[in-house]
TrEMBL record:
Lineage of origin: Eukaryota, Fungi, Dikarya, Ascomycota, Saccharomycotina
Catalytic activity reported: 5-(methylsulfanyl)-alpha-D-ribose 1-phosphate = 5-(methylsulfanyl)-D-ribulose 1-phosphate
Native source species: Maudiozyma humilis (Sour dough yeast)
Protein name as catalogued: Methylthioribose-1-phosphate isomerase
Function in brief: Catalyzes the interconversion of methylthioribose-1-phosphate (MTR-1-P) into methylthioribulose-1-phosphate (MTRu-1-P).
Pfam families in the record: IF-2B
Stretches of the chain forming a coiled coil according to its record: none
Length: 406
């Protein structure tokens, strides 16, 4: 069974239901929370109950769809005080204000902005709430379907590319790969981007093992970084790798150089996701990605960014134009998790038999901290950008030519 970050129940078209997996509670608690309007969407994105650039965009679009569904309900419109019901043009302007508000939930990932821009066009062209509801429904269904389909394509593109590079290098043995943050099913509609490539490499590996192929390059192990301070690597990627039975070992962010230099299993590549790739290939992704890229260059390890076309920002020429979100200091000074027994890791339950969430202080409360959520990796450090339409590499002058994507 594949992991599902978003449950979208379309069985009753007039009463669509959306639930998102609360990622703050993983890996110990699996709980879906309902999303019914833009306020729910905003809150779940800002608090990072849902995170990962594609998943943020899909939850954002779904929350707009649900709000439009409410606009078509007489009882809701009677109770609410925000929308002007008498004048459709005014309602449209107010909807646009709501999109702007939703966009302010997290600024770095471009996917949400791209989806909301598309929806803004649909709002502009709609002559009634019924036609708008239909148009946004179709758009959002496509967004979810395409994301899953594109991830599988990206997975195959990335795996094929690495295996052919290894073939050219005459490398015919087991190897390991590195990854950071969570780019899997939990961050997307399914399969994942960078983790999708890793899934694809693992499928290839299993086929080669089953058919008894000898002296072939095959991925034997994954080393996900814990991804401090929010621990998407240890809470989410580790959870996904265990779920899929992919051999893996979680490593601290601070161990990259030592791991690469001391690993018995040669590490041949790092695969990372992206929140925004700009025209020259500079890439914003989870904090720690840049240092991983620098170390990969130092040790001659291939470094790949894996992302769908919707993560490309064709308006921004270079990385210095990217706004990097800073998260609250508490997210750094406190570690958030589920209280567990220290020996067997079973959750400690409260009087209602529910697992207890806890925050543990790991820095003086008054200490000033800097807590950027992302960093920007210059394209010089990137060997390839894996997308659903192919793998982009640099020309002899060291430039990516991403024009085919725009
Ligand atoms: O802060 P997050 O957890 O939303 O950051 C997520 C990442 O940086 C991912 O690598 C990126 O969004 C791509 S997810 C397919």
């Amino acid at each position: 069974m594949s992991l599902e970050s978003i449950k979208f129940d379309k069985s009753d078209r007039q009463n669509l239901q959306v639930g998102i997996l609360d990622q703050l509670l993983l890996p110990y608690v699996t709980k879906y929370i309902p999303i019914t309007n833009i306020d729910d969407g905003f809150r779940s994105i800002q608090t990072m109950q849902v995170r990962g650039a594609p998943a943020i965009a899909m939850v954002g679009a779904l929350s707009v769809l649900l709000e439009i569904q409410l606009l078509g309900s007489e009882s809701y419109m009677k109770e609410q005080s925000f929308y002007d019901t008498a004048d459709w043009n005014k309602t449209k302007t107010q909807l646009q204000e709501r999109l702007d508000y939703l966009l302010s939930s997290r600024p770095t990932a471009v996917n949400l902005g791209n989806a909301l821009k598309d929806i803004a066009v649909l709002i502009n062209n709609a002559d009634s709430v019924t036609s708008l509801n239909e148009a946004v429904y179709e758009y959002t269904c496509k967004l979810l379907e395409n994301d899953l389909k594109d991830n599988v394509t990206m997975g195959n593109n990335g795996a094929t590319h690495l295996l052919s590079l290894l073939e050219k290098e005459d490398y015919h043995s087991d190897f390991g790969v590195l990854t950071i943050c969570n780019t899997g099913s939990l961050a997307t509609a399914g399969y994942g981007t960078a983790l999708g490539v890793i899934r694809s490499l693992w499928e290839d590996s299993q086929k080669k093992s089953t058919s008894g192929e000898k002296d072939v390059a095959k991925m034997a192990h994954v080393f996900p970084l814990e991804t401090r301070p929010y621990n998407q690597g240890s809470r989410l990627t580790a959870y996904e790798l265990i779920h899929d039975h992919i051999p893996s070992t979680l490593i601290p962010d601070s161990s990259i150089a030592y791991k690469i230099s001391s690993s018995d299993l040669p590490i041949k590549a790092a695969f990372v996701g992206a929140d925004r790739i700009v025209r020259n290939g500079d890439t914003a992704n989870k904090i720690g990605t840049f240092q991983l890229a620098v170390l990969c260059k130092q040790f001659g390890i291939k470094f790949f960014v894996v992302a769908p076309k919707t993560t490309i920002d064709n308006k921004t020429p270079a990385g210095d134009g990217i706004i990097v979100e800073e998260r609250k200091p508490e997210e750094f000074k406190l570690v958030t998790g589920t209280l567990v027994h220290p020996v067997d890791f079973t959750p400690i339950l409260d009087d209602d038999k529910k697992p207890v969430s806890a925050k543990v202080g790991v820095a003086p409360p008054d200490m000033d901290v800097w807590n950027p959520s992302f960093d920007v990796t210059p394209h010089e450090f990137i060997d390839g950008i894996v997308t659903e339409v192919g793998v982009f590499t640099k020309d002899s002058n060291g430039n990516f030519n991403l024009d085919a994507l725009f």
